[in-house]
Amino acid sequence: MIPPSFEYHRPSTVEEAVGLLSSLGSEAKILAGGHSLLPMMKLRFAMPEHLVDINRISELSGVSVVGDNITIGAMTTENAVIADPILNEKVPLLPEAAKLIADPQVRNRGTIGGDIAHGDPANDHPALALACDAVMTVVGPAGARQIPASEFFLGTYWTALNDDDILTAITVKAFPDGAGYSYRKLKRKTGDWATAACAVVVALSGGKVSHIRITLTNLGPTAIRAHDAEAVLSGQAVTDELIKHAAEKAMAICDPAEDLRGDVEYKTAMAGQMVQRAIAEALSRAN
Amino acid sequence: MAKQIVKMTLNGQQVEQLVDSRTLLVHFLREQMNLTGAHIGCETSQCGACTVDIDGESVKACTHLAVQCDGSDVKTVEGLAENGVLHPVQEAFYEEHGLQCGYCTPGMLMRSYRFLQENPNPTEDEIRTGISGNLCRCTGYQNIIKAVQSAATKLQDKETASA
Amino acid sequence: MNAPVKTPEERQAELQGMGDSRLRKEDARFIQGKGQYCDDIKLPGMLHMDIVRSPIAHGRIKNIKKDDALAIPGVHAVLTADDLKPLNLHWMPTLAGDVAAVLADEKVHFQMQEVAIVIADDRYIAADGVEAVEVEYEELPVVMDPYAALEADAPVLREDLAGKNEGAHGPREHHNHIFTWEAGDKSAADDVFASAPVTVSQHMLYPRVHPCPLETCGCVASFDPIKGELTTWMTSQAPHVVRTVVSMLSGVPESKVRIISPDIGGGFGNKVGVYPGYVCAIVSSIVLGKPVKWSEDRIENISSTAFARDYHMDGHLAATEDGKILGLKVDVVADHGAFDACADPTKFPAGLFHICSGSYDISAAHCSVKGVYTNKAPGGVAYRCSFRVTEAVYLIERMVDVLAQKLDIDKAEIRRKNLIRKDQFPYTSPFGFEYDSGDYHTALEKVLDAVDYKALRAEQQEKRNDPNSPTLMGIGLVTFTEVVGAGPTKMCDILGVGMFDSCEIRIHPTGSAIARMGTITQGQGHQTTYAQIIASELGIPSEVIQIEEGDTSTAPYGLGTYGSRSTPVAGAAIAMAARKIHAKAKKIAAHLLEVSESDLDWEIDRFKVRGNEDQFKTMADIAFAAYQQPPEGLEPGLEAVHYYDPPNFTYPFGIYLCVVDIDKGTGESSIRRFYALDDCGTRINPMIIDGQIHGGLTEGFAVAMGQQMPFDEQGNLLGNTLMDYFLPTAVETPAWETDYTVTPSPHHPIGAKGVAESPHVGSIPTFTSAVVDAFAHLGVSHIDMPHTSYRIWKKLKEEGVQL
User: At the topology level of CATH, where does B3-79 sit?
Assistant: First the structure.
């Protein structure tokens, strides 16, 4: 398993990186954490002629906060997400979920932006981004633009990014006060992608649901937000019955691909299980 | 062929080498630098036998390019003992029978070395999670966990003694 | 000032002999990154070989285009079967009496079969070369199911065997049939079944799995054209056998072939065979006159080097209504893949599968095994077990559970009733094995008490009564017997070479020693434990005994390490060689002390004159004398060689109990408790024994709960990396509880039976027993492995109990 030859480029600014991507065209790929790209290259499924390594662009890493908006640099690693005090305080779903991604070493290299930009429905951050109402900051030759998560994921390995775009930051809103959250991920073993996973963010007001997000990982061609399931709970005092009903609504929009993890029936059923468990856990944490 | 000069600190020594851009760090270490401690087990970043320390973080050297290490501080299992004195994790793996065939051992040691700096007083569950990026086929992990616990104690004792 | 006199206890402790949890000699190099594994070896001018492999499972090779590969700077050669033909090396004999293609000759028979090799300056260029070789195939119908392979109109897989109606193990009945092998007494078994009050039958598949050691296979072949000598470092569990095979294949005299097994990163049976990669690297080195390295990658390892199991089994038990087993019948269809490359003693094409009457006193039994070709990779090795013993133990343990369930008898009770009693040993099984020793009932009760079996059953009943319980609880119990230490040469040989093993010990003048054996450690710690045997036998501290294995130019001939044969066979050879030295030492001691041998007593590390405690000679004194002033008539020096031909196999046993909780929503299982009691006879190093058991249990857990080699109908192996192939991490792996009893082997010089494989063999049916037990109240009596969450969930759904 040996990667093919390529030219290596290491820009130190976003501008420089975008310039390289524009001039090199579609034969160039961005090297972020590399834990999706390098294995693909070793298997010679991917054979880019140029790699643009954006690991040394310092402006792409780190977490900052302005009011309710928390901005996470795209090259912030999973372990940095796990350790970040701002995220733990304001969007604790992200650090908790990141612990379920890959393994300790891979989390030192894997980045939140790489996870999102890859467009792989098996990755966890797309569903988390949807659950956190994230907005992506994308820089291309024409400058920066903002794309909400809901418009970012277009299909399997297909996002709103152009070949010469770089995802530079992910901005999320701090959770409402007292919000509960949960990410339940069923996997075969450490390091595996989800057989099915569900993120839930919920806030209560007077015992009734005032804010709810239910999103799903690896249960369709992209991460999915389960609007109908949210509608079941929205404004309600949640009962076990309603949770089951919400899970059914979520299962109804699942369109998973059969693989060694299971067939469509199993994965859909597991979506239901994960949705129920995530809602229950999120509620237990909400106050 | 796209070759580049790479400068790094490797086990405390400055090195400057010409490498192919596609050369994986694990091959650079093993073949160019003759440091064969890091092993190749899976090549798809599951097994962790190639784990080394880069700038204070555990990294799987099979999924990292040598050129990416330009300017970095890289430590391998060969750099773990200092002045001929074994590091406490090395001692502990020996004393607790934390290895059998030895193939996963360099990666396990490098991960344990870093893990105990991240979490100096871990529970058993935290150790299991902390070494979950490293596969071992021989030990069933039970004695590896004992070794990490023992190393934690040794490191704490050392800390106390030097304080 | 005189040194203080040491007490016998102190002297005993200093030896670090048998029974001591001595720390391992191997570890110093491994913990400092100084092990020397095959891929660590680097020779001047060394080239690298990589392999072009078939993307399809069955097809004709229409054309191989080498030009683009040869045009790459740094590529030295591209070789195909046509290039090997003039050397008659395009096919090679297998250990099972078949032939296997070295490089595909006109046809490919399985996905990832070796088609061509590329030799280049380094592994990067070799990989580019592989990418550049273009092969054109004509696809042929693929046969993946061994039953379908035996249908009359099934495609002919092995055209090279056309007209060959007699195989290595008797007549071939069909073009895809390899052999049918039988053991036991069919008519006696049929008679018992005809009149038995109760019979049960169960079909079960022991799926194809792969041993998957962390280090893949590889070699460095170095032919010296001037001396005509071939040295090859190789990931081999059996270097001497490889030397013999290489000499036969290459025509290089065996005296000029040197095979070295360096440090080996786990074997588990995967490194017993002789693979095309080794042969090609050797041929390349001979042809090019340069050292050539081949290092397999993980996908190649899982896809093409030896698998294990793939036994489709039908078991039948006959019994009385109160659960006394009367008879056993077993029929197996064995999927051997494209070539019969099983690694078994030559006379036993199904290995020692006829140990399948297990730990039970059964009067009549019969088994038959039918070997079949399919479009899968060849192999059939003993994955951390003695030859096909895992399959046998699984079969009988499952059948006993099935019978217990049918008769509504508790699985512990039915075992009490049928286990061979202590007073029945030595016990001759219905298949003719003579079990050397055992005390099964004592061990069983010890385990049941330790886990409070009654309380577990009560808890389980409560859970079964509660429809709202989120989990199902299952209790698995297995009482297994292994047969290891192959083996007596009257029965066991490989390619005609008897399965003895050997040891050579030299005591140096100053009292330290070097010893060499025909086995090769792959993590078992031979360098530590073998020294302990010598220390106890000869009174020399383990610390000054060097153990060397794996170099055929220095070690005496031996059959290698697999099938738990190192301690039972080489361990015995060590004790016997040591005893030869001991006998000579006694003569020297008598001479030095000027007494007769009969006046001497041996104590720990010295011969003492009986009745005169102060007159003694230590082994160190004697060693020096052996080189300085041997008694008249005795040759100088102090060394011995022993080739040990075991009179019998050894029969380690164990009692394993497992408690599993199954999530009714997801099918996830959690091993709450696993209690393993092993009896391996005399215990040489308890620390190492425990380590071996932890490892074996973990491999058993992997097999039972997740390992599989799923193929699609086109013969593509889905899941050939460690992303899919289940090697549990520390997170998934349960915590193990170990225990033991000691029933020494009466025929083994030190009473040891072998241990490393028992936990693999015994644990696998224990996990299945536990998972099935969780469903037992629903009438489920068997579920095939692997017990993944997905498969368990399907069962939950089938039974209507999923949440």
Answer: Ubiquitin-like (UB roll) (3.10.20)
Per residue in C599-616, pLDDT (tens digit) is 999 999 999 999 998 999
For residue C433, the domain's CATH number is: 3.30.365.10
pLDDT in tens, A147-163: 999 999 999 999 999 99
- Residues B88-162: name the CATH superfamily: [2Fe-2S]-binding domain (1.10.150.120)
Q: Tens of pLDDT along A236-279?
A: 999 999 999 999 999 999 999 999 999 999 999 999 999 999 99
Q: What is the 3-state secondary structure (H, E, C) of chain A?
A: CCCCCCEEECCCCHHHHHHHHHHHHHHEEEECCCCCHHHHHHCCCCCCCEEEECCCCHHHCCEEEECCEEEEECCCEHHHHHHCHHHHHHCCHHHHHHCCCCCHHHHHHCEHHHHHHCCCCCCCHHHHHHHCCCEEEEEECCEEEEEEHHHCEEECCEECCCCCCEEEEEEEECCCCCCEEEEEEECCCCCCCCCEEEEEEEEEECCEEEEEEEEEECCCCCCEECHHHHHHHCCCCCCHHHHHHHHHHHHHCCCCCCECCECHHHHHHHHHHHHHHHHHHHHHHCC
C195: enclosing H helix or E strand? helix C186-195
Contact A260 C719 (CB under 8 A): yes
What's the gap in Å between the CA of B108 and the closest CA on chain C?
A: 10
> Do C406 and C526 belong to one domain?
no
Question: Per residue in C476-515, pLDDT tens?
Answer: 999 999 999 998 999 999 888 999 999 999 999 999 999 9
Query: Which residues of A have a CB under 8 Å from any CB of C?
Result: 1-2, 4-5, 44, 103, 186, 188-192, 195, 260-262, 266, 269-270, 273, 276-277
The model's pLDDT over C754-782, given as tens digits with 9 standing for 90+, comes to 999 999 999 999 999 999 999 999 999 99
Q: Are residues C719 and C589 in the same domain?
A: no
- Asked if C524 and C663 sit in the same domain, the reply is no
Q: What is the pLDDT of residues C406-422, one digit of tens each?
A: 999 999 999 999 999 99
Q: Within this chain, do residues C363 and C412 fall inside the same structural domain, yes or no?
A: yes
All residues of chain B having their beta carbon less than 8 Å from the beta carbon of residue A55 are 68
Residue of A1, A103, A262 with shortest CB distance to C790: A262
> What's the confidence (pLDDT) of residue C2?
63
Residues of chain B with CATH 3.10.20.30: 3-79
Q: What is the ipTM of this complex?
A: 0.98
Q: Provide, rounded to the nearest whole percent, the portion of chain C with pLDDT above 90.
A: 96
CATH 1.10.150.120-classified regions of chain B: 88-162
Any domain includes C173: no
Q: Does B64 touch chain A (CB under 8 A)?
A: yes
- C503 noted as active-site residue: no
Interface of C with B in 500-559 (CB under 8 A): 522-525
Whether B100 and C268 lie within 8 Å, measured CB to CB: no
Whether the CB of C734 is below 8 Å from some CB of chain A: the reply is: no
Domain A181-285 class, CATH top level: alpha beta
- CA of C23: which chain B residue's CA is closest? B95
Tell me the chain C residues in contact with residue B22 when contact means C-beta distances shorter than 8 Å: 124
Q: Structural domain boundaries of chain A?
A: 7-53, 64-172, 181-285
Q: Quote the number of domains for chain C.
A: 3
Distance, CA of B37 to CA of B26 (rounded, Å): 10
- Which among A42, A82, A103 is the top mutation candidate for probing chain B, defined by the most B β-carbons within 10 Å of its own β-carbon? A103
Residues 11-50 of B with CB under 8 A from C: 20, 22-23, 27, 30-31, 34-44, 46-47, 49
Tell me the backbone φ, ψ of residue C353, rounded to 5 degrees: -55, -25
CATH number given to A64-172: 3.30.465.10
Work out the minimum CA distance from A102 to partner chain C, whole angstroms.
Answer: 11
Asked if the structure places residue C200 within a domain, the reply is: no
